[in-house]
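Researcher: Let's continue the batch. This sequence belongs to Cell envelope-related Asp23 family protein, and it's 87 residues. Same format as the previous ones, please.
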Amino acid sequence: MVRQTATFGRGLPHATAKVAGQHVRLDVDVVVRWGRPLPETAAAVRSLVAEHVSELTGLVVDAVAVDIVAFASDPHAPALTGTETRE
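Model: Same format as before. Here are the structure tokens for Cell envelope-related Asp23 family protein:
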């Protein structure tokens, strides 16, 4: 997953949360480097987001929906920590 600067008011990754009591559901939009395996990348993002949100907020993460909304072809684009595979 890579960071993409805002073009029209919103950079990526982008997340929204719906909180009900001590439970949260998250929607995450991400950019993925071209050539990365999409199911494995989405699963890694889902796991990392759930883990970090739970640790930081103490909330129970019920679901993390990951939408891959764009691809980055630049092999030197900055990757987000924890999702980079060293080549």
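Researcher: Any comment?
Model: Helices lie at 38-57.
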